[in-house]
Amino acid sequence: MAERYGEMFTIRVADNIWVFLNSSRVVNDLLEKRSAIYSSRPRFPYTSTLMSGDCRMVVQPYGPQWRAIRKIMHSILNIKNAATFAPFQDVESKQLIYEVLQKPDLWWRANQRFANSVIMSVVFGKRIIEREDENVEELFETSREFIMALQPGANLVDTFYILDKLPRPLKWWTKRGEKAFRRLLKVYTTEVEDLKRRVSEGTCRPCFATKFLADPETERLGETQTLFALGSLMEAGSDTSRMTLSQIVAAAATDGRWVKKVQEEMDGVCGYATRLPDFSDRKALAYMNAVCKEGFRWRPFAEIGVPHMLIKDDVYEG
């Protein structure tokens, strides 16, 4: 449709007007340069209100609560604290290589464990060696449930808002959404309680959650919002990383010429069979960096992303 209608076109779906942006130029002009009015979210009666208690940051409207969470997150997830989280990625990347060498037929499972363990280590300070932790399994299952619920057309009430005005007995989706919310709270609470136990025992490594919970501003968010702030990071870094890794493997299987170039570049920087690359080599591995970026561009995890909503009318190029 973008090839036919151009960089920007509009579709009316029920009571909603959807504007599709189809070029980096337009996206940058509106979502970046005018982010102050383009950063809110539309209503999601099922996905946001029922499933998430209006506390999931990715579907929260732009406002004081959203800004408060973002402020705390930015104070922790910045370049100054990168050194705190880099060791997690380094250890897990070595474990990933080992698992692929030992069981190459199960490379997809190794990718999954790697992605989940990295984000679990960064957020909650604990690794996933084997996928045997029942609560961890359920945590990632709830994440996938949310991602599926967010797909266009997955829940009619998120598109046709008039359905939300029906009497409660006629809202067939209500019990399902409330059940998902209770399940999610239980999973998040279990992880946070486990974190607090490890902190009290002195066995918890510094991680995002320890810094987040220690921030005085966090208390103002309330318990439920705090749990969802931590859980949102888990969702952002688990399946997204796994799928990108798998797409790059698929690209390597499709055309191995670029793999040879990556190997040559890596040997030139790290030496042949001498050592593995680390973060200090990043600038020298330009081709490798390009491959990673192409993995995101080629097969994006969510092609249309999460819809944005303007907080006031705007005019663009007439």
Q: Could you explain the architecture of this structure?
A:
A hairpin with a 2-residue loop joins β1 and β2. Helix content is 58%, strand content 4%. The mean pLDDT is 89. α9 packs across α11. Strands 1-2 form a two-stranded antiparallel ribbon. It is globular. It comes from Corynespora cassiicola Philippines.
What's the quick description here?
With 318 residues, this protein is mainly alpha-helical.
Ordered list of secondary-structure elements with their pairings:
Layout: H1 2-5, E1 8-13, E2 16-21, H2 24-32, H3 35-38, H4 45-52, H5 64-76, H6 82-102, H7 107-124, H8 134-149, H9 174-201, H10 208-214, H11 223-237, H12 239-254, H13 257-270, H14 286-298
Helix pairs in contact: 4-9, 6-7, 7-11, 7-12, 8-9, 9-11, 12-14, 13-14
- Report the oligomer: single chain
Q: Which residues sit in consecutive blocks of at least 5 with pLDDT less than 50?
A: none
Indicate the CATH class of the largest domain.
Mainly Alpha
Give the overall shape, derived from the CA principal axes: globular
Strand order of the largest sheet: 1-2
Can you tell me the CATH architecture of the largest domain?
Orthogonal Bundle
Please give the number of β-strands.
Answer: 2
**CATH homologous superfamily of the largest domain, by name?**
Cytochrome P450
Number of domains: 3
Cα-to-Cα separation, first versus last residue: 21 Å
Mean pLDDT: 89
Largest sheet: 2 strands, antiparallel
Share in β-strands: under 5%
